[in-house]
Amino acid sequence: MLFYEDMIPGQGTGGPSLRVEREELIEFARRWDPMPFHVDDEAGKAAFGSITAPGVFVLALKQRLIHQLAEPHAVIASMGYDEVRFHAPVRPDDTLRLQFDYIERRESRSKPDRGVVTVRLSLVNQAGITAMSHLDTILVRRKHPASAPDLQEGE
């Protein structure tokens, strides 16, 4: 288990990878984002050279990979995503690898058993091209909780 103390800004770690299954992509797109270039070969070819994955599907693949980590993070909750970017299309048969880069962290001022970490999560394809990235601010358990600080009024 990776705890707050293990998530050092400026460092990162690689994660698992997966192959994008064509039928799963199309089935998902038909249900949740049925734009023609996501579900129809001819429309996809005309627009992008092939069908492409919906952004929400790409985010779901990222989440699946998070839950396949060999050493999971001691996350209590996500506090929100920022800077969500789709840099390159995700296509059937792409292989996507999860990458974590720790950006910043701070101890909780009110709860000594946790801290807040900002991490950049990326999906990198088989050609080494970043297909998607976003910042995630996460609330994380501490391995060695500090004693509770004396809070000033208003903190």
Overview of this structure, please?
The protein has 155 residues and is of the alpha+beta class. It has one domain: Hotdog Thioesterase (Thiol Ester Dehydrase, Chain A, Roll). 23% of the residues lie in helices and 36% in strands. The chain has helices spanning 22-32, 36-39, 41-48, 55-66, and strands spanning 12-19, 75-86, 95-107, 114-124, 130-141. The protein has a 5-stranded antiparallel β-sheet. A hairpin with a 6-residue loop joins β3 and β4. Mean pLDDT is 93; it is low at 150-155.
CATH class: Alpha Beta
Shape: elongated
Largest sheet: 5 strands, antiparallel
Q: How many beta-strand segments?
A: 5
What is the CATH superfamily classification?
A: Hotdog Thioesterase
Number of helices: 4
Instruction: Determine the strand fraction and express it as a percent band.
Output: 35-45%
Spatial gap, N to C terminus: 30 Å
Topology:
Layout: E1 12-19, H1 22-32, H2 36-39, H3 41-48, H4 55-66, E2 75-86, E3 95-107, E4 114-124, E5 130-141
Antiparallel strand pairs: 1-3, 2-5, 3-4, 4-5
